[in-house]
Amino acid sequence: MADPRGFLKHGREAAAHRPVPLRLMDWNEIYEDFADDKVQVQASRCMDCGIPFCHDGCPLGNIIPEWNDLVRQGRWREAYDRLHATNNFPEFTGRLCPAPCEGACVLGIGDDPVNIKTVEYTIIEHAWKQGWVEPIKPTFQTGQKVAIVGSGPAGLAAAQQLTRAGHEVTVFERADRIGGLMRYGVPEYKMEKKWINRRLEQMEAEGTKFVTGMSPTGDDLKGFDAVVLALGSTIGRDLPVTGRELKGVYQAMEYLPAANHVTEGDREVSEIDAKGKKVVIIGGGDTGTDCFGTALRQGAVSVTQFDIGPRPPKTRGASTPWPTYPRVWRVASAHEEGEYRVTGNESADEIAALGLAERTPGDELGVRKFSINTVELTGDGEKVTGLKGAECRKGENGLENVPDSDFEMDADLVLLAMGFVSVEETPVVRDLGIEVDERGRLVRDEHFRATATSPEFADIPVFVAGDAGRGQSLIVWGISEGRSAAAELDRVLMGETALPKPINPTDVAMRA
Questions:
Q1: What is the pLDDT of residues 253-308, one digit of tens each?
Q2: Is 512 a domain residue?
Q3: Is the pTM of this model over 0.70?
Q4: Residue 354 domain boundaries
């Protein structure tokens, strides 16, 4: 518990965002500095709630009230130790997690919840600056070799836990850099990739080995004593409408990685560039919003985002009661940028960077629209030039278009961001013979263990962590499952384990 009266004295406050015209001219993170003393005030809002439901809201089981109280008192080193005990990568979750812990905060029943995410982020950045984040090397070597396929949050968390337990761990990543979708999916303005590199240096110093540019086959895994498949769920849901085959229509995960390669310095211009184009994004979730912010930074003439669902309410509704994560109206940083209205006083550099040459004062840079169904993509026979859509609603037989609501609009670039449906059938999945369920997930039991049906690999324990087994989910679930799978694997190899496991294994199927 922090200050028992803090929530009565202080309101919720967060770091300010950099001005929209300024931040759209670069790829740097969007936040202004937020002073430590202000963070301590925010931590003091943590109330004496009796039962801290934030624990259940957090898939990692972070002991949030304890590090809130330590921050309030200025005991930053102890707060860091408490945070790192349950979360391998607070700098990732502190930037990218949607904070289900805040949705479960007891204070949030009648007031704004505690700004847990900001406190978490500040703790870990304080620790890095003070040099407290050091390699934790194993005290002994087990002689067991573990292969981890995939280097997203689940794979990295499993790798760090197993390395610290004394196993010889090798992480295989088919991309040219480690990080999974954090590297080639999350835009730079949401998380600069230098933070991934910083953490990888610690992991390499601990003893974890990384192999990039390689999608391993079953033969590559011979000689390992156990395998963790943390492949993610990267096959995007498609749009089965006329015109889908036209050039200029891309999946979000074709578009976003191409932009990341530019910010990594691999090329000067993305092969899928929104500059000077009218962009339409189909899908209202986080991935679509990432496309929104990316297109604005590339200088799109206009950006329109369609969500097939209705506009969320401003306050928590009956469908998402406390302490579940509330479905409410939110304005992401990208949408805040879209709401910027052209003033006519922008500099020449701003006009060029923001794609304002075809704009008039008062225009918004981008808009999002709800309850919209895309009916057809139109083109010139080769490239997409527009789309036809209609308003939609839930009817007796499912989704239906609203009569007389049809519309047409221009579009030079259409991005599909409608969620992810399955794991890719990679060579290692085929060679090991891992079964895939009706939802496109790798089949595993309540202990995260999968069955290799190929006789050649029947004796190798195989575990599945993250989106590959759970389906599309949050970064915090990926880290949690990586830690859990590591504990189960360690138990199989050694007969027992001292590794902490944040998830009760019986909850896996229920929460999937």
A1: 999 999 999 999 999 999 999 999 999 999 999 999 999 999 999 999 999 999 99
A2: no
A3: yes
A4: 238-418
